[in-house]
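Final report, section 2: Outcomes. Of the targets proposed, Sodium/hydrogen exchanger is the one most frequently requested by collaborating groups, and we therefore present its record in full.
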Amino acid sequence: RFGIHLPQDLSDVTLTCAVNSSPTTILVNVSGRFYEYSLKGEVQDSKGHDVPNVTFDPEVFFNILLPPIIFHAGYSLKRRHFFRNLGSILSYAFVGTLTTCFVTGLVMYGCVVFMKVIGQLGGDFFFTDCLFFGAIVSATDPVTVLAIFNELKVDVDLYALMFGESVLNDAVAIVLSSSIVAYQPEGDNRHTFDGSALLKSLGVFLGFFSGSFAMGAATGVMTALVTKFTKLRDFPLLETALFFLMSWSTFLLAEACGFTGVVAVLFCGITQAHYTYNNLSAESKSRTKQLFELLNFLAENFIFSYMGLTFFSFQHHVFNPLFIIGAFLAIFLGRAANIYPLSFLLNLGRKNKIASNFQHVMMFSGLRGAMTFALSIRDTATYARQMMFSTTLLIVFFTVLVCGGGTTPMLSLMQIRVGVDTDQDNSVSSTHVTAPDGMTQRSTKHESAWPFRLWYTFDHNYLKPFLTHSGPPLTSTLPACCGPIARCLTSTQAYEMPMACPPPPPARLGFTRSLCSEAPVWFSPQMILQTH
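The predicted structure is given below as tokens.
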């Protein structure tokens, strides 16, 4: 029973009783006289009272659905082609994404100003909102295009550029959108330019990205050490389970430390693929690949299905024709400002130039997908964010259907090579030498760039022997004074691995030699015992 007291000086009053549950009876006190009312039924709003049954918290995307998608992107990375084009990929992912964000934001701000002048804007829309829109639509997600690329086996460099850009671009877009939200000038007006607030946003961007990178790489290194120095390979099911839990814990640890979990998961996947994968048993290698491929497939299909459902179930759509037309124009100009100027600058220092037909395909294939949708649905509280969300849905649907469906004709029009073996380099840029053991080794001109050679030398001689069973033993690469530590950190399997070739010498030395002519030779303990 719920009692409601009615003042005596009021004669005609509509009573309102806010309760958390539906009481069976309500007792009303009117001028000292009590009236009892029994519950006969409930009156509900006929406009979408079933909507909560088909929707859920947007944070579910970032906590459950996006991590397996992003981890699979890093774990399935074709590392040789990725690192060979690393400089170009980083340029497109960082400089290109920032360029796309600001160009899109400026174009949209001009569109918003024009809408205000002609009276077509029904709420507040500031420059920071335009930049936020530029950040969320700068996240490219060419899932459809990459699937077609993989099926047709397009040129490996084009695939590496597209895949690498999309992988890192998502991470940059997440951190960039968070940095724009963190832009809060002091005073009453939060939407004016403030140098200190800009520096704070820049610090947030660098701090979030570097912290997430360090967290993901550290978890991957830890997993590699666990799988190297334990006997988990004798228990493949337990090994697979631990691999999955360690990978998922990266997201939780990063979020608990205040970083971006999705970005940490990406770099964890890259580290796991480069190091931990070499320590797994054959069963675990197959299981982990299939497991994350399945999770990625299910998550992506669910997101696109939910995207279609949201188009009809979202109750606060704001469709403005001028804003929609301006958005399509802005993303086109932003993508063009990303691809063509950067490709021109990169070709000044690349031996293997990014051809114009590659640039046209990259321009055409800049789809928007799950990441753009997830970033836009996180905040739909204001008029500006609701208009962004509605427009984002149209952009995703259009780019996936039109650009994704037109990929195959575009490849034919641009005369892109298909049917290329992804395990081989271009015949023009690959040379082969014969090692002393009769095995044919491949040297690539692309890999003669000094940053790649420096990283490859350090990774081949120190990191891989320390974290995996592959590579030369640390006893042959570390100085003699580090002998006890090297023997402790080198597993017995490392002595039994086939001899690996060190990287070729720098081209500037003016001489050539066989890749394995001066490689250190080591023997397994069994071979030493047999000789004695």
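Strands lie at 2-6, 25-30, 33-38, 430-434, 440-444.
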